[in-house]
Design goal:
Elements: H1 14-30, H2 39-53, H3 68-81, H4 83-102, H5 105-117, E1 122-125, E2 141-145, E3 148-159, E4 166-172, E5 182-188, E6 194-199, E7 208-219, E8 223-224, H6 230-266, E9 268-269, E10 272-273, H7 278-306, H8 313-338, H9 348-357, H10 366-380
Parallel strand pairs: 1-4
Antiparallel strand pairs: 2-3, 3-7, 4-5, 5-8, 6-7, 9-10
């Protein structure tokens, strides 16, 4: 089946099809190293290579004009080929997005420009040991001291932690609880008082760490926007990139379906192929239908953001929730079709099984997406 048939949908323009084909051609010839075991080295190389190829400019635009359809398409293509390629791409965007949205021209040149060229690795530091989905529980503080802010606290589950050149750090600049005193600062990795407390190993290996800030001095000029605007900036950034999570889920799911189709055709069983069995056919039909439905939700949200210029909090949440849950089901079905081979370490569907699981958690767990969707629906009926 044609993985790019959806590029004919009215959600897209010819430039999107051109970008997707360019990314596909590049991925086929350039990602042979992306499954190596040293994820730090792989990610550093991926950022450089993607920057040189021009793909990072789509997730780190100097003019702050994000094209969500391009972001989602690139994630779909790269996730199909290698989870770390998708990871490297999106973290450059998530980690520089707040600067692109609220930074001064000098900040954009220093951070967004370098991220787009692959010259600096970016990271987004929001989560804490007691503040993940509940951002209002954030405890890190940043107090003004002369020309600097002094940052104290712990951030954890930080992707690119340990290899990033700079971090977007969210901390309290006032005493009031809730989200109104949360501000955003750009913190260079070599800032005095910043240390990597531990590296975190996860089931689909990628660079991740817990960061500790102990009297970390950050120039006041590194504040993004104004004090108290950090929560709004974080949500704006997540709204842009959340649809991209759906794109990545589509890439993983499409790869699983491709692998399952090939296996079903070649596997001999009971004097016929696995594909001849009605149970297999029913499962393949469910997988394909789920993927198409997820793609419609994802690219509708992207189109509404890009073309209609609408706030897509609800639509992005729907896309993220449905696509990631569907991808988990599709990949699980693919593992089942492969049988014992599907749980063999290093097999494509085994790797997908590990890679997809985090998508249902990061950038807002499925349960949080349900709350967002319900909240938006209730607002409409007030």
């Amino acid at each position: 089946m044609d993985r790019f048939a959806h590029l004919d949908w009215p959600f897209f323009e010819p430039r999107h099809a051109e970008l997707a084909r360019k990314a596909e051609d590049w991925a086929v010839t350039s990602l042979s190293y992306a499954h190596d075991e040293d994820e730090d080295s792989v990610c550093r190389r991926l950022v450089k290579d993607m920057g040189s190829a021009g793909f990072l400019a789509h997730c780190a635009p100097l003019d702050s004009r994000f094209d969500v359809r391009s972001l989602a398409l690139l994630r779909e293509v790269f996730a199909f080929h290698a989870g770390l390629a998708d990871f490297a791409l999106t973290m450059q965007g998530l980690g520089s997005g707040p600067v692109a949205l609220a930074g001064t021209e000098a900040q954009k040149k220093r951070y967004v420009g370098r991220a787009a060229r692959g010259e600096a690795i970016a990271a987004f530091a929001l989560s804490e040991p007691d503040a993940g989905s509940d951002v209002a529980a954030l405890a890190a503080t940043a107090r003004r001291d002369g020309p600097d802010y002094v940052l104290d606290g712990v951030k954890t589950w930080i992707s690119n932690g340990g290899i990033a050149d700079f971090y977007i750090v969210f901390a309290r600049t006032g005493q009031e609880s809730g989200t109104k005193t949360i501000s955003a600062l750009v913190v260079d990795a070599d800032a005095p008082g910043l240390s990597i407390r531990e590296r975190i190993d996860v089931i689909a290996p990628h660079p991740m760490a817990t960061l500790r800030f102990a009297g970390c001095r950050v120039p006041a000029e590194n504040l993004l926007g104004k004090e108290g605007e950090g929560f709004k900036l974080a949500m704006q950034t997540l709204d842009i990139f959340r649809t991209g999570v759906a794109g990545a889920a589509l890439g993983f799911a499409r790869r699983a379906l491709d692998e399952a189709l090939a296996r079903a055709r070649e596997r001999k069983m009971f004097g016929q192929t696995l594909a001849d069995l009605q149970m297999t056919q029913a499962k393949l039909a469910e997988m394909a239908t789920g993927i198409e439905a997820a793609a419609l939700l994802a690219y509708r949200a992207a189109w509404l953001s890009d073309v209609q210029k609408k706030r897509v909090t609800r639509e992005a949440a729907m896309a993220k929730m449905h696509a990631t849950e569907t991808a988990q089901e599709v990949i699980d079905a693919a593992v089942q079709i492969f049988g014992g081979l599907g749980v063999m370490r290093g097999h494509p569907v085994e790797r997908l099984y590990r890679e997809v699981r985090a998508l249902r958690i990061y950038e807002g767990a499925t349960e949080v997406q349900k709350l967002i969707i319900a909240r938006e629906l209730l607002k409409e009926t007030e």
